[in-house]
Write a structure and sequence with these properties.
2 strands, 10 helices, about 75% helix, globular, two-stranded antiparallel sheet, mainly alpha
Length: about 240
């Protein structure tokens, strides 16, 4: 595959690299225009649920679903919108079942974009950026199980992990599986939280008890497996 080279650093950019760059620029541009034009991104950043609701209601159901998935992708790739704010909106506007589906789809697509971008671009500066070093070291030694445990814990589930996974070239499908398996409990609870505002409080209580059980198991696995398992660095 042909590409161009930066002579100062010896970087070679293939067509897929340029596609990844263009995709990221397009997402950034749309988010910026939506924010500056008083669009749905600005409403999300401000937490204006009424304006968001008006926007989604005014659209065809398919358009509403696609717009919501796009917002989740923006949250994952760019990180300008807190996930804790947008995920409950899925349950509020679409119901918990569809909300979980749309939030999961947005997370999977966003993680894939971040991973793909990092494989082509971010790997060139991860060694020069201290923010990546600790996560990269953990993922190299612990692999996809380490990624799953980090994603399972809301306190360590950072979107930067997708970039790091791509930069160190974790296998793609195990990366997607570990990411989505780790995110699913939080997606379910936050989406049901949004749906609970419409009256399904019993389902919310059940989800919270399930989340507590999952987190308890997580803590046990973290201390017994992750911290005491011998580490053997893997090649990039």
């Amino acid at each position: 595959m042909t590409g161009t080279t930066d002579s100062k650093r010896g970087w070679t950019f293939s067509r897929s690299d340029w596609f990844n760059i263009a995709t990221l620029i397009a997402l950034l541009a749309w988010a910026a225009l939506s924010y500056l034009g008083d669009g749905v991104v600005r409403h999300l950043v401000r937490g204006d649920v009424t304006r968001i609701s008006d926007t989604l209601i005014s659209l065809h159901p398919v358009q509403s679903a696609l717009l919501f998935i796009l917002l989740v992708i923006i949250e994952v790739v760019i990180g300008i919108i807190p996930g804790a704010l947008i995920y409950p909106l899925g349950g509020l506007f679409f119901g918990w079942a569809q909300g979980i589906l749309y939030v999961s789809a947005g997370n999977a697509i966003g993680a894939a974009i971040s991973y793909s971008y990092a494989r082509s671009i971010a790997e060139r500066f991860t060694r020069e950026n201290s923010r990546f070093v600790r996560a990269a070291r953990l993922l190299r030694t612990k692999g996809t199980m380490g990624l799953f445990l980090l994603r399972l814990n809301p306190l360590t589930s950072y979107d930067i992990l997708s970039y790091v996974a791509g930069a160190i070239r974790l296998p793609f499908w195990p990366f997607i599986a570990a990411t989505m398996a780790g995110l699913l409990p939080a997606i379910v609870v936050t989406t049901i939280l949004g749906d609970a505002f419409l009256g399904d409080s019993r389902l919310l209580v059940q989800a919270l008890f399930a989340a507590i059980a999952v987190y308890t198991v997580y803590l046990a696995v973290w201390h017994v497996w992750l911290r005491h398992r011998p580490t053997r660095p893997k090649g990039i």
